[in-house]
Design a protein that fits this description.
The structure is a single chain. It contains 18 helices and 31 strands. By secondary structure, the protein is an alpha/beta fold. Among the domains are: about 240 residues, ANL, N-terminal domain (Rossmann fold); about 110 residues, 2-Layer Sandwich (GMP Synthetase, Chain A, domain 3), CATH 3.30.300.30. Strands 6-5-15-14-16-17-18-19-20 form a nine-stranded mixed beta sheet, with helices on both faces. A hairpin with a 3-residue loop joins strand 29 and strand 30. Helix 12 packs across helix 13. The radius of gyration is 24 Å and the shape is globular.
């Protein structure tokens, strides 16, 4: 993009000290792609990314077409890596390919792929071309793929071999006015081969000027309440996320970040951008079992690991049962474990510290509308406040308001609002939803929260998940945290169930730890410590469904156990 960058190393990281013609209204223009170019210049021969799949064969003997089958059946390790030189050159080739194919600044280019070593170079190539990167959830079915492609007005789609069948089922419709690029072997006849298209493209930076205010990426809401919304961010948002992550977790050149969640999600990508900002290595791990995670931390010498609640709980359960032993792994270098994407039971962190007393810990709160995690965070120095989501993150502001938008008194519950440089520009092609969420410069999160006397914010629940029973507001997260502390409970979700007299009653869906038995009588006895109105009125022992980001799929649970079933029963009665 630009080649006249100079940098000096500071205690906080790296600072640009000169850039010709790169100021606008007193503001330094710096797209996040500059960090990749800087790493190329300063650390070109050092490893940037490692792809690790413990369940896959040696890639020299495996074709892309065999991918899904092999990862299920092969015990052989699979490890690939690329340097910062290769990373940046791949991104440049992608950018020049896009420009050569007629993609213009502001066009939308989608990515539908599993985590691999091509994912981030393609993403950064899209950004370098001036186009807008549009990551798709790899769990989208064909109908959702088509819906999101239309909503975001996608001009091009990169897709991997695992999605050929889904794309093939909608190929006549999705190909209308769109370029289809296949990343893998044995390219289908309705797409162009990525490897052939990119092979002869220049590895030099494209001559495209990018400003902070230029549109950069579209992310999709989780879609747990219907079809997802398209969330538009500019380049300032992406750079804010990278700088904030490095600052919050003090990521430095010696750190190694273990990235497990899918890169289409803002949480995984923007946590990784702390490594981009620091110029340090990251590992893309495929697999979430306790053995796989600890083995990766040990062999790759990982220092920072971001986990979802279920993965952390499974590690603790395996340690409790003796299925794994810490002395079998090299873990002394692991300095930070942090969790986000969902409320974190304080009992889990207390348990974690028993096994890992030296670990720093952080809770990250955020949403895709705020460039993912970190607009509120606990801070590694505040572990005594576990249970809170924390305080405003780097360059963020927060307030808690009532239904009329007025700030509530300290200690009262209201809707959490945030404001900062990582806010979305809008919901793409949805002005009505944008107006409901962005008000007078504030982003209304839809989360109910309260602030304690020390200024720490506690998440109470999603506004739409509040249970109103007999006129009393009941916040499921409070009950979930309480039940999570019971030693037989692996996971729990609390929802409202219809009731003729009270309107709603509280129902608890409980997943019991492996090898244990639990009864309704035990849970009811344990819940006597709760105020009577908060005690679950119905106990259901079953699995708790969570989406790819670890959030409980409460709309699904309501369909399974809630209104549809109980209303039908009431009607029959």
């Amino acid at each position: 993009m630009f080649t006249d960058l100079k940098w000096r190393i500071t205690r906080a990281g790296f600072k640009r000290i000169n850039r010709k013609g790169a100021r606008k209204e007193g503001k330094t223009i710096m797209p996040v792609t500059d960090l990749l170019e800087r790493n190329h210049k300063l650390y070109g021969d050092e490893v940037a990314l490692v792809e690790l799949n413990p369940m896959m064969k040696d890639p020299r003997r495996v074709s892309w077409k065999e991918y899904d089958l092999v990862q299920q059946t092969s015990p052989d390790p699979y490890r690939r890596e690329i340097t910062w030189n290769v990373f940046d050159e791949k991104a440049n080739r992608v950018a020049n390919m896009l420009l050569g194919m007629g993609i213009k600044k502001g066009d939308r280019v989608a990515i539908l792929m599993f985590n691999n070593l091509e994912w981030l170079p393609i993403y950064f190539g899209i950004l370098k071309s001036g186009a807008i990167a549009v990551p798709f959830n790899f769990r989208f079915d064909a109908k959702e793929i088509m819906y999101c492609a239309n909503l975001a007005e996608v001009h091009m789609l990169f897709f991997g071999p695992q999605f050929v069948e889904r794309i093939d089922s909608i190929k006549d419709e999705i190909r209308k006015g769109r370029l289809m690029i296949y990343v893998g072997d044995n390219c289908p006849d309705f797409a162009e081969s990525y490897r052939e298209m990119v092979a002869d493209c220049s590895s030099r930076p494209p001559l495209v000027r990018i400003d902070d205010e230029d549109d950069a990426a579209i992310y999709f809401s989780s879609g747990t309440t219907g079809f997802p919304k398209a969330i538009l961010h500019n380049h300032e948002s992406l750079l804010q996320a990278a700088q904030m992550e490095q600052k919050h977790h003090m990521t430095n050149r010696d750190d190694v970040f273990l990235c497990i969640p899918p890169l289409y999600h803002t949480g995984a990508k923007f946590h990784w951008m702390g490594s981009l900002c620091a110029g340090s290595r990251a590992v893309l791990l495929k697999g979430t079992t306790p053995e796989i995670i600890l083995d990766a931390v040990s062999k790759e010498h990982c220092t920072i690991v971001w986990l979802l609640v279920p993965w952390a709980q499974e590690i603790l359960d395996a340690l409790d049962r003796g299925d794994i032993k810490l002395e079998d792994y090299e873990l002394d270098q692991w300095r930070l474990m942090h969790i986000g994407a969902q409320p974190v039971p304080p009992s889990l962190i207390k348990h974690w510290k028993q096994y890992f007393p030296h670990h720093l810990y952080d809770t990250n709160y955020g949403l895709s509308e705020s460039t993912g995690p970190g607009c509120v965070h606990l801070g590694v120095e505040n572990i005594h406040k576990v249970g809170a989501i924390g305080v405003p993150g780097y360059r963020w502001f927060c307030k808690i308001v009532d239904e009329e938008g007025k700030e509530v008194e300290q200690g009262s519950v209201g809707e959490l609002c945030v404001k900062g440089p990582g806010m979305m520009t809008c919901y793409y092609n949805d002005p009505e939803a944008t107006a409901e969420t962005l008000k007078e410069g504030w982003l209304y999160t839809g989360d109910m929260a309260m602030q304690d006397e020390d200024g720490f914010i506690f998440l109470v629940d999603r506004k739409k998940d509040v249970i109103i029973s007999g006129g009393e507001n009941i916040y499921p997260v409070q009950i979930e945290n309480f039940l999570s502390a019971y030693d037989k409970v692996k996971d729990v979700a609390v929802i409202g169930l219809p009731d003729k007299r009270l309107g709603e009653i509280t129902g608890a869906i409980i997943s019991v730890k492996e090898g244990m038995e639990c009864t309704e009588e035990e849970i009811n006895e344990y819940c006597k410590e709760l105020p009577r109105y908060k005690r679950p009125k119905k106990i259901i022992f079953a699995d708790v469904p969570r989406n790819a980001t670890g959030k409980i799929e409460k709309p699904l649970l309501r369909r399974m156990y809630g209104a549809d079933r109980l209303v039908e029963q009431q009607n029959r009665g």
